[in-house]
Structures are given as C-alpha cells and as structure tokens.
Amino acid sequence: MTQLMNHEHSFLSLLCMQKIVFWSFLAGIALFAGVNDSLQAAEGGYRVTDIQRIGLQANGLLRAARSQVDIASAEVISASAFPNPEVTFMAGPDSRRLPESETGPSSMQRQVTVSQSLENPFVRRARIGAAEAGVEASRANLEQARADLAAQIRVSVYEFLLRRDLAMMESDIHGLMGEIQRRIRLSVESGETARFELIRADTEVMTAASRKEAAFLNTERARVALLKLTAGALPAEFNVTASLGDPVDLPSLEALRAELKAANPEILRLEAEQNRARLRIDQERASVLPSVDVLYSNFQDKQFTSNTAGLSVRIPLFYQRRGEVDAAVSDAARVRETLDYRRYEIDRLLESAWQAMEIARRRVEMFEGGIVKEAEAALRVAEAAFRLGERGFIEVLDTQRVLRNTRSELLQAQFELQSAAAEIDRLRAHYPKE
C-alpha cells in the first residue's frame, strides 16, 4: 500500500512538473511575442517619404519612362553618326564585235567605285541639337511621371490615415452605444424604462456596427490601393508613422511661382520640345542647300588602268522642301502656343491649390480651436446626466452625432490640407529622390 502511494505521489509530481514546463513554455512564447511587438513598435512603421521612395523604385510605369530616356539617348547617337561610304564593284568579260585580228584577244574588265557623302554641317548640327532636345523632353516626362506618382502615393497614404482614423472613431462610437445599450437593458429589466428605449438603443447599436464595419473595409481598400501604387513592395500589414495633423511647411506663394518656372516638369518638357521644333526648322531649311558626294572610280582591263575622281551634286532646283519647312514652322507655333497656355494654366493651378490649402488650414484651426473640444465636453456632460438619470437616451444620441460630425469634418479638413500640399509639391516636382 505504501509503495502504491509512493508511485502515485511520483506520478502526481511528474504531472505537476510537466504542467509547470508547459505553462512556462507558453509564458516564454507570450513574452517573446510581446518583446517582438515591442521591438516593432520601437522600430515604428513607414514614413510618408519612405513609402514614396519605395513606390518610385518599384512602380513599373517609371521604369517604362526611364526606357524612353534611353531611347532618346540612343537617337542622339544615331543623329551624331557620319554617313557610311558606298562601294560599287562591277566585273565582266569583253565580247568582240570585230575579228580578233583587229581587236586582239578578249579580256575581263573590273570597276570599283567609292562614293562618300559630305554632310551639310548646318543639317548635322540642327539634327544633333533636335535629338538632344528630345532627350531633355524625355527626362522631363520622366520627372513628371515621378512627381505625379509621388503625389499620388502621398495622397493615398493620407487617405489611408483618414480611413483608419474614421474607423477608430466609429469603433469608439460603437463601444459607447454598446455601453448605453447595456445600461438601458438593465433599466428595462428593472422596470425603470420603457422597452421602446431598448429597441431604439438596439437600432443605434446595429447602425453603429454597420458604420464600423464599413469604415474598416474602407481602410483595407485604401491599404490595397497603396499596395498597388507601390507594386506590392510594401508588406501586406504595413504601418504608417504619420498622422493627418502633420505640419505643412511651404514657401510663400510668390516664391512658389518663381520656383515653378524652373522646376515644373511639364513646362520644362514643352520648352525642350519648343527648342527641338526650332532646330527642326533650321534642319529643314539647311536641307535646301545642295548636297555633295565625293566619287572615286578605278577601272581595269587587260590593257589599261583608269583612276577617276569627281563630285556628285544634288541641286534642289524644282522642289525646295517647302512642305517640310512649313510643317516644321507650324509645329513650332503649336508648341509655342501650348507652352504659353500651360504656363498660365499651371500658375492658376498653383494658385487654386494654395487657396484650397489655406481654406483647409483655416477649417482645421477652427475645429481644433474649440469646436471639437466643445462637442467632446457636451458629450461628457450628456453621458454623466444619462448615468444619473437626468437626461434621456435621445440627448446622448444627439450630442454623440454632433461630435461624430465634428470629428469627421476635422479629419476631412486635415486630409484636404495634406492633399493640397501634395498638389503643390507635384506642380513643383518636389518629392524624395530614389
């Protein structure tokens, strides 16, 4: 009996030790997970500039725009190339038409002719200049694509933050409605409140739950849109270390206007195209001048060797490329008119974005200056009065709706402020370089 009790005691001790080891293992896993989460929180998420750099490096459309620059650079090499010489070789036997006694024996004759074009230096210089202007236009196109993508990513980041903050707000409202619902249910069960109030509270809770779910789905949709812009280079569950309340510091409007003339990619592209169109006019006009080919010919037969040299001149006597010149002049006029209009339009776009930014800034200051605080204080007073039985559910609900609308307006105003700043940075091509 004693031996059996000893075996039972040993078995229980072993079982206790296994439980201790098991729970220690789980505690270690939990501790490791907590430490890992703490490390991730310490490291933080991605900044807005980090996400912009990732998107600029990973987006395939930018790689395609870079290829256009390479193509334009290759065209400069083609435009700088000298014309190749042409070599003509002919050979064949002589056929006698008279007796051999008079002509002698028949023989083979060979002729080699070398032709080298002497390129018009004015045409060459204009052609190379037009190709180089094409490179500048392609680079400006690439810069425009970069600025557009960086601004789009920035707006998408702040839209994600907007959706996330709205989802958090709807989650808080859902929790508040749930707490009020529980209080009303207790009052109904105790007979202090009519059942109609509980039905109304249930309806508000379901409505709040629906808004909460929709807000979280919109947040995930904004996350997916951001992943699409970065070509999947971001992890699926990324975090952003930014807020809608980030400060917006920009130069004055006059300084931005001065900067825009030398920094806007579209203006730079149109200026490059204007230069290319002007050089094409020079190229077409220079093509009217006569072109010269240098010729050298070597002729050999059984008796003689002949070396001759000469020039071949193409004279534009009947057609002097009037159509090509007129087309180049018209194209230059088109580019010039487009450039003038786009300069005016971009200046107006800058002014419009600046005004939108100032309006959004004033709205943010107005809401942060007291409206939101007053709505929060009113909700706290209504909640306290409801707990004490001095106010009904309707007063709390109305106050909560006022606060919800106020917070939504504040978040929307902050988002519009960041969007206007992103538009200004897009116009002046201000973005983090890869």
Protein described:
With 434 residues, the chain is an alpha+beta fold. The protein has one domain (48-92, 106-427): Outer membrane efflux proteins (OEP) (Up-down Bundle). It is built from ten helices and four strands, in the order H-H-H-E-H-E-H-H-H-H-E-E-H-H. The chain has a four-stranded antiparallel beta sheet with strand order 1-2-3-4, with no helix packed on it. Strand 3 and strand 4 form a beta hairpin. The longest helix has 69 residues, at 121-189.
Furnish the topology, listing elements before pairings.
Layout: H1 2-43, H2 48-58, H3 60-80, E1 86-93, H4 100-103, E2 108-118, H5 121-189, H6 195-229, H7 253-263, H8 265-286, E3 291-300, E4 305-314, H9 322-387, H10 393-427
Antiparallel strand pairs: 1-2, 2-3, 3-4
Helix pairs in contact: 2-5, 3-5, 5-6, 5-8, 5-10, 7-9, 8-9, 9-10
- What amount of the residues lies in strands? 5-15%
What integer is the average pLDDT?
A: 82
Helical segment tally? 10
Rg over CA atoms: 41 Å
The CATH H-level superfamily is: Outer membrane efflux proteins (OEP)
Task: Name the strands of the widest sheet in spatial order.
Answer: 1-2-3-4
